């Protein structure tokens, strides 16, 4: 099997089609010539890879006899065969070769497996290098540990077939496809010595998020950042279909990759020995290219966009498995995707087939008497923290440094009398972020899809500009705010930004992402996956806490003058609420000072996804800084200045969450007060949304006692909510007074409207809220001799007020005194 | 201004960078040589475009003096300036030139504006061609109508700045970016004579969904389908940033586009006259290329993948606006994105600046005395149904043909005794879809992200295979199911498939999309936008109803043996519920026959998004076909065989929605029945989820009376739900008996588990449900002398049963008789 260096890999001919290569694999063809490995190195490298492949098979099939030291019997086979072989040999091949280059060049490298169900190809080498057993001592490096390692795989209570958080060295699960390059880019930011190897599955490469994330090369600054080495693994098939990229011509594929700004090196074939030579030569070239670009940039201090190297690795799907089964092609076919040989427990022929296949890796040459990998093979893996399963960057909480924080109180605005001045809520936050940035120029970044200025956060550019490595024009100097060392990352892809931020956080840094509310839904699924990742991490004692993902949702539903209906969607919160209470936090600060207080809290927190909802436009200001801090610390509270129930049970509780709803609710209080002065109103404002949920459901939840003391046990509650109204019911359905809770919120009514019109259409406006109160407080009838007359006065006021703002309020004319 | 044909457009030099072109615009450079327009044609074409640009400005600025027949005064200017100029001239330029080619070649063409806020550039030519006034007669083709047309734009109660449903000829709003190519592809499917012009914004081109949708050329069959003509409009800037593609070298951009399989023709410059020549020559070339590819394929009957033509149109942002304002660059800068000259109402200099700019289009030469466009210019637009604002394909409901439907009852399975046989729920649906396909081989398609077989729908391939136009290998013949005329569209991009399906439906056809439940979240935002589109269409009498979007959500949360936590997410339903009740429908058929009945109903329906949740695995069967039809028609009902409350008020209502929850709930009934034979249980199953909501909220909702008669007004209800449990509370919080409703569902607890374990972790299992009943029905204490003993028996049974399935049920040992 070992091959001498006289049999070099052939050169890829640019005009050849994928088909010509893929349908008839054989000796390697590669862009980079050369045979850097000695025959001994080829043999050992191949042995290490055989060991990986053997382990992958063991994980899928075996519950006993882990080293095949006795003939394979049905009782050695797992009851249910689960797991995926298809992509595993390719991943293990890459991992094995990366080990070589890490050792050779002392590279600081982490590994990300983009292809779905790639765990068997990663867990194998992680186990062989010893990092698995260090974290999970019961999966020891001996026969007994090996068996446990096999049995837990895809087994109830065990580990999954993706690179889940349980996988040492993984910060990218690959359960949902498409995010490997953006995660890799985030990990490489501000880690100048790191190379992130990112394997892109050819199935994954069809997803939108992956397709646009080839652009990451326009965001990696060779002076300051590490590098990403993408390895597009074309094994040709998804679950049941060929992949698109595996069936285009070599010309098209190469043009595409060059067009996205990479320099692709091809390694194609199936013959292991020539493939080992080709892969080794290519990886040496890639690392040299990366080092050269970095050297050039760092020695000159001038950042530029290198045409970074990448690899296209074309191998058969299920590489090294049997060529066929029952006359159907297996290796190099979609049939190798999952469990290539089924029914092995009951079918003796199949069992024999499996046994022969497993023996083809010659485990007896790979493991010693105790069942550990032989020392000369283990020596092929790096040691200590250079092992990719033990690299500190991949357990980022351990390398994280706390943010140095300026005092957020100094960025507040003066509010002498609540509700009398206006300010843009987001603008001072921009100033605060500017100074947070100033103090943390190596581990803090701000992300936004071309909306940082639109979202009024542009003060941040005074500290650090928009990251821009492409060409600039003379006119960019006038307000373009572009710089190659900018730390504000803008691209019109919420997917890419979210992925970059996740990668940045998971490697121990901090960040802040602002985006338009309606389009937060673009990353619903990414949020879900990140929340799930954090949830599982919480169950793993060895995973250190990373910084929270801070998401500012702005340009909100209630002011979309010309954007209209498409931009009206406050439903991201409903998605967030479904995720584990251990990792989700939602805040709706109503004004500048409360937003600053909340943002400060979020930036300092760990392990959460913090969602902050705040509109960017001019809004009334309510809270002085001291009041804001007190209010936000409690998360929910009575606003005494808007309440007149001092010490007594009120007639009604009016509650609000969000800026516009708070304004309308306060205006309703004002309208009511003018006519019904002795109506006892308690005004409650909610900043921390989870306060509404019982404390048994969410750690922030109020106890029933506290909830009842705020919301009473039997008085009507009129709640003006920023989002869809039923969300509040979902949080509060267990509360004593839920039957008297009446919520107003966005009800999917809108088009091109003024804010007041929009409020009216969705019945969250001051008039509707006032009417809601009148309709629900029978005592109003007794609030004076002329209650009905007061009601008429109110009615006229409402109509006139609306008219003044150009809004017709026809139904107001039909309001009837309800008693 | 008119230019003679002696001044040809220059040839694009491949090595030149974007920067060289964009920073210093001037005479056109183009890939295609030639000057096909006579000087008179240039002059007229230019005049038509000037009229478009004038209208765009009028929409943004004017509320009086629409034809500038008197000097411009502050009172002519709108109070608030909203709308986007930046992309408009480019869109109008394209539209104007498409008009020419439509007339010249009698092309059947529709137009899609991908760039955000493009409406002013589209509404202008749609108004000029007369199709606007036909639909909206008050926006007549005279001065008065023109003024109304101006005033409504971005005005409260008027129309938005995207190509909203109110826009004649639009089936693509462009409010959320990224979907123009997939929409265009869907529209072109099975419309062999149609060319869909799809303008891709360079901002939009950074999104993931757009980036992968360049692949649509691998799905357009030149024999059977129409063509998509992408026009990448590089105007260089987003809101505040340069775009990535506008700043790479010509070489990279061209390589990228060729790599994605297109033949790009470049048209670059700012000088109008040479640009008119270049664009005309290029469009002639593109239409010729398209026709040639189609001729070749159709004459031979052999489908292949042409390297379809596309256009890269590089023009300045805000083209033809003033070059600068207050010393800052305006034309060709991000400053031209929205309203280029602000403050015109109060600042007399600005007003004058605006007036001069508007006069630069010489409106007096464009409109006649009545205010209509001059006849010789109007003659440049096509007439009748060839006008892109009047093309029937863009109001698809009018060209829709009803599906021919086989009798779904014939695809059912025999269910003699409920709960005794098992079947894979999705498999017979595949057979049914196969025959629906057979009857509708020109207007029905099935979509799935590489999961059609995984989702057990593969019978469909017997009628039509997977659409595949790339290379095939010999081994594909063995089970590959690939064919160039396949009608099953598979690509690993939920975005692209959803976009194709939307485009297909909006042009009057029918379709069915199946996808993994957890990853339906990938298209949350697309669903939102489509639901919003349908909601607005319902308010427009001229929009004919299109077929519903049918989405089968499968591979559900409750069975994810090795996929694990990442694949457990039933939250798409929460997203659906937020959208308008007029367009949303959700079904959870529990077995084969009910799934068939529901699918049949959905395929025949119009105007909705139908979401069907059904797992693909083996499940118990409950309903005979007759019973299924009756049950699904009602949408909710008592299952008498599982109930023993005949004619009486029960002790408890046990309810379920979804396959696994129904199984567990029925098993709980069985467990309870064994020990507490006289406990009166009513079993209610919900197929149509919106039945739970009040009829005031959703047209499917039960009246309170009907709800109360099913769920009682005071008995405990134990509800086993497929999704997140609080969703049921959200639907029912207004119901009389809501306080006694106890819901079990998925609570974000999971990893690698057996279905029973997963159910137990989330407390939706039979044991927990039985305990829930015992804990809530005090009467149980009186159900016999030995109630406590019966409870002990039940406890032992539960523990033993769980043990039998390999699940430990430790908490069962702690169960206490609660009375």
Quaternary status: homodimer
Q: How would you characterize the largest beta sheet of chain A?
A: 7 strands, mixed
CATH-assigned fold name of the largest domain in chain A: Rossmann fold
Distance between the termini of chain A: 95 Å
Tally of extended strands of chain A?
Answer: 24
Question: Helical residue percent of chain A?
Answer: 25-40%
Number of domains of chain A: 3
Q: Average pLDDT value of chain A?
A: 94
Low-confidence stretches of chain A: 1-7
- Considering the protein shown, what is the CATH homologous superfamily of the largest domain in chain A? Thiamin diphosphate (ThDP)-binding fold, Pyr/PP domains
From the spread of the alpha carbons, the general shape of chain A counts as: elongated
How does CATH name the architecture of the largest domain in chain A?
3-Layer(aba) Sandwich
Number of helices of chain A: 25
Strand order of the largest sheet of chain A: 1-2-6-7-5-4-3
The interface involving the most residues is between:
A-B, 129 and 127 residues
Global Rg of chain A:
31 Å
* % residues in beta strands of chain A: 5-15%
Quickly give the structural class of chain A: alpha/beta
